[in-house]
Design a protein that fits this description.
about 300 residues; 7-stranded mixed sheet
């Protein structure tokens, strides 16, 4: 049995992302560093990544373009135990409610387990966030629903939209200001639908630009703005992806592929594949891609 990729992780307290791997019951992580070379070649078929830390009993083959990377049965099992499914209303853990900013006019409200810290925000690619409150699961869920209606913000944002705005972020002050404005509106709701069991938390904008590799360059060209940016649409047997890692956010790795430009790899597409060293070759990226913001496939391969 070979090591299978389990996707990108953002451990609490870490300075950057790490790729997870599993081989049977064994797991490990590869810490990634910006400015270093990153590459791999896919081999064989893509197999279901399992659910809740367990391998798929069928070893089912799954579509190359699926970001879930699971067969229908494992997908149902994973969703049944998620917080979003509301299947454990008596969950004794403490939860936090947050506002997350991904780009101008792109803010969502959500909840996460307090023990996870801000890891959930980094996994979603939130450039800036602020906590709103903390308390029992159902109180946090109630607050989420109230805020969605009162502030006119969603609890989900399509990931492709987050990706499209990442190369042209405004400066940190402007980013924090939008979150602060919405926090103020949320605070004004106290007594008007805010659950009594939920403790209010003070406003504190946390900016992930440095952690994502955007840093002080954000707003002045952290990522190339000229020429098309491509995203990997799915891996294929023998297909390679290689480049210099320049940034990462959420599940995405941003690679400088030389003459092929900036290429984004959604690591959710890597789960379930057997991956080996990329090796030498003329094309640094030899898998199907799409133009970010364009929606059209570019003849399958570079």
């Amino acid at each position: 049995m070979d090591w299978q990729c389990t996707g990108l992780r953002w451990p609490e307290g870490s300075d950057g992302p790490a790729l997870g791997w599993r081989k049977g019951t064994r797991t490990r992580a590869s810490v990634l560093a910006y400015g270093t070379e990153f590459g791999f070649r896919a081999s064989g078929e893509r197999r279901c990544s399992g659910a809740r830390g367990n391998a798929c009993p069928l070893g089912a083959v799954v579509p190359a373009g699926s970001t879930g990377g699971r067969c229908p049965e494992c997908g149902r099992l994973d969703r049944a135990h998620s917080v979003a499914a509301d299947t454990i209303p008596d969950d004794p853990r403490t939860y936090r409610v947050y506002l997350a900013w991904f780009g101008p006019g792109m803010v969502k409200v959500g909840i996460t387990g307090e023990e996870r810290g801000a890891a959930r925000l980094r996994e979603q690619g939130a450039v800036v966030f602020s906590w709103l409150g903390r308390g029992p699961l159902m109180a946090a869920r109630r607050a989420e629903e109230v805020l969605r209606a009162a502030l006119g913000v969603p609890d989900r944002i399509p990931y492709v939209r987050k990706r499209e705005v990442r190369a042209a972020l405004p400066d940190p002050v402007e980013r924090a200001a939008e979150i602060a404005e919405l926090y103020g509106k949320a605070a004004a709701l106290e007594g008007g639908g805010w659950p009594e069991a939920l403790e209010r938390l003070p406003f504190a904008a946390v900016d992930h630009a440095e952690v994502f590799g955007l840093g002080a360059r954000a707003g002045t060209g952290a990522l190339p703005r000229s020429g098309p940016v491509r995203a990997v649409a799915g891996l294929v047997d023998g297909g390679a992806v290689a480049g210099r890692l320049v940034a990462a956010a959420g599940p995405d790795l941003h690679l400088d592929a030389g003459p092929q430009g900036l290429v984004i790899v959604d690591t959710r597409l890597m789960t379930g594949w057997t991956l080996t060293a990329a090796g030498a070759g003329a094309a640094r990226v030899s898998v199907p891609t799409v133009v970010v913001g364009g929606g059209a496939a570019q003849d399958g391969l570079f």
